[in-house]
Amino acid sequence: xxxxxxxxxxxxxxxxxxxxxxxxxxxxxxxxxxxxxxxxxxxxxxxxxxxxxxxxxxxxxxxxxxxxxxxxxxxxxxxxxxxxxxxxxxxxxxxxxxxxxxxxxxxxxxxxxxxxxxxxxxxxxxxxxxxxxxxxxxxxxxxxxxxxxxxx
Length: 152
Hints:
Blueprint lengths: L1 E8 L3 H8 L2 H10 L3 E5 L9 E8 L2 E13 L3 E7 L3 E11 L5 E11 L2 H12 L1 H24 L1
Antiparallel strand pairs: 1-7, 2-3, 3-4, 4-5, 5-6, 6-7
Helix pairs in contact: 1-4
């Protein structure tokens, strides 16, 4: 199942991408939300970065491995997120619209690995418009947060 959301941002492409590659900031945000994050690999060399995450979701402890699969500054990043039930591919693209404005696009593809995950994804397909709106809303919120960070 695939979700795509686009948001126009009042920041230059390079500035927006620099904010997005501040991985330590995103790690701190995750830790504040109760996620245990362990990074392996060097932030200076983006290739080979990997995070092992443990968190509670719907009353159960979950694990996920986030791997930076593709990094081409200042345009694109791709992450592979795996856990025992579900694989997720997240592609983030930043394209310049003008000198002071850029487009932030996030696409994610969910691939179930277990029967339970297949049922979850199938129910999401039945309510696709609801989940598309929720995904678009969350991407818009993230874009606003990135603009606030760029203004600071």
